[in-house]
Design goal:
This protein has 298 residues and is an alpha/beta fold. It has helices at residues 13-24, 57-70, 132-135, 151-161, 179-187, 280-295; strands at 2-9, 29-32, 74-76, 80-86, 89-94, 98-106, 110-112, 143-147, 166-171, 191-195, 197-204, 208-215, 221-225, 228-231, 235-237, 266-268. Helix 1 packs parallel to helix 2 (57-70), helix 1 (13-24) runs parallel beside helix 6 and helix 4 runs parallel beside helix 5.
Length: 298
C-alpha cells in the first residue's frame, strides 16, 4: 500500500497541473491514471485556445506530464474502484492495491458520450471515431459526418475539413459552439451544417457507408453517404468512485471557490466538478488553485 501526503485521481490537464505544483512544494504526491495517454480529452484537441499562445493539445499534455515526472510525482497506472474516508485519511482502492493520503484531489474528468444508436459499437474503429486529429488522415478526400453542436464538435469539424472532401455537421437544435468556431465553420467551403435532425443508425459493410437521420419537425427519414461518423455530443463525469462518499449533482461534485467539496480535505477540479466552464485553460487554472488549497492543509 502506498502512503502519500496528497493523491490526485486523474491524469488530465487539471490533475497533471495540480500534481506537479504540489510536488514542487516538496510534498509526496501520487497521481492515479489508468490510461497511458495522459492529458485526457486534450489529446484529441488540435489547438487549445485561451492560453498565451494557441498550443496543440498533445504538446500541452506532454509538457505537463514531464513536469510531473521532473518534480517527483509517483505515477500510478491503476484504475480507481472506490474512495473511502476513515478518520483523517482517504483510502483509494484500485485495480492493483490500496493507497492512502491525507488530502485528495479528484480530477477524474469525463468520458465522451456515445450516440447510443445501432451500428455505433459495431463500426467503432471502422469508421466511427472520436478523435479527428488521430483518425482524420484516414479519411483523406472522403466524406464524413460530425454529430454535435458544441465547441468540441466545431473544432473536430474544422480539423476534419483539412483532410476530407466534405464534412457534414449535424445538430438537433442549432450550433452552440463559441463564436470563434462558428465564424470559421461558416467560412469553410467544405463544411455543411444540417440542423433539426437526429442520428438514427450507422450503416455499412466492412466499414461505414452512411448515416441514417430523421427530421425533428416532421419525422422524415434520410440517409447521408459517408465514410466516417464522429460523435461529439458532450461528456459524462467520471465520478463513480466517490458516489458513496459525496452527494453528487447530476454526477458532478459541488465545490466552493477553493474547490473544496463537502468532505473535508477532498477537492475537485475540471470536468468532474459542478460549474466547470468546459475550457481547457480553466482546467489548468483550477489545477493550480486547487493545489494551493490542498497544500494549505499542511
Amino acid at each position: 500500500m502506498g502512503s502519500y501526503d496528497i493523491l490526485a485521481i486523474g491524469g488530465g490537464m487539471a490533475g497533471l497541473t495540480a500534481a506537479s505544483e504540489m510536488a514542487s512544494a516538496g510534498r509526496k504526491i501520487g497521481l492515479v491514471e489508468p490510461s497511458p495517454m495522459f492529458g485526457g480529452q486534450i489529446a484529441n484537441v488540435e489547438t487549445v485556445e485561451g492560453l498565451e499562445a494557441p498550443t496543440p493539445g498533445l504538446m500541452l499534455a506532454m509538457d505537463a506530464m514531464q513536469g510531473c515526472v521532473g518534480n517527483g510525482v509517483d505515477i500510478l497506472p491503476e484504475e480507481v474502484n472506490v474512495v473511502m474516508s476513515e478518520g483523517d485519511a482517504f483510502h483509494i482502492s484500485t485495480s492493483q492495491q490500496t493507497h492512502s493520503a491525507s488530502v485528495l484531489i479528484l480530477a477524474s474528468g469525463g468520458r465522451l458520450k456515445k450516440l447510443g444508436i445501432p451500428g455505433e459499437a459495431e463500426f467503432d474503429g471502422r469508421g466511427v471515431s472520436q478523435c479527428a486529429s488521430c483518425d482524420g488522415p484516414i479519411f483523406q478526400g472522403e466524406d464524413v459526418v460530425v454529430v454535435g453542436g458544441g465547441d468540441a464538435a466545431g473544432q473536430e469539424a474544422l480539423v476534419l475539413a483539412g483532410f476530407c472532401r466534405n464534412v457534414t455537421l449535424l445538430t438537433r437544435s442549432g450550433l452552440k459552439a463559441d463564436a470563434r468556431y462558428g465564424e470559421r465553420l461558416a467560412a469553410a467551403n467544405n463544411i455543411h451544417h444540417v440542423d433539426g435532425v437526429t442520428a438514427e443508425e450507422i450503416v455499412g459493410g466492412d466499414t461505414v457507408s452512411g448515416l441514417r437521420i430523421r427530421r425533428v419537425d416532421n419525422g422524415a427519414p434520410a440517409e447521408i453517404s459517408c465514410s466516417g461518423v464522429f460523435p461529439f455530443i458532450g461528456s459524462e463525469p467520471n465520478s463513480g468512485c466517490v458516489a458513496e462518499l459525496l452527494k453528487l449533482e447530476g454526477g458532478l461534485v459541488p465545490t466552493d471557490e477553493a474547490f473544496a467539496s463537502a468532505v473535508p480535505n477532498l477537492f475537485a477540479v475540471g470536468a468532474v466538478r459542478k460549474d466547470y466552464s468546459g475550457q481547457i485553460a480553466d482546467a489548468i487554472e483550477e489545477g493550480r488553485r486547487a493545489a494551493q488549497s490542498a497544500l494549505s492543509k499542511f
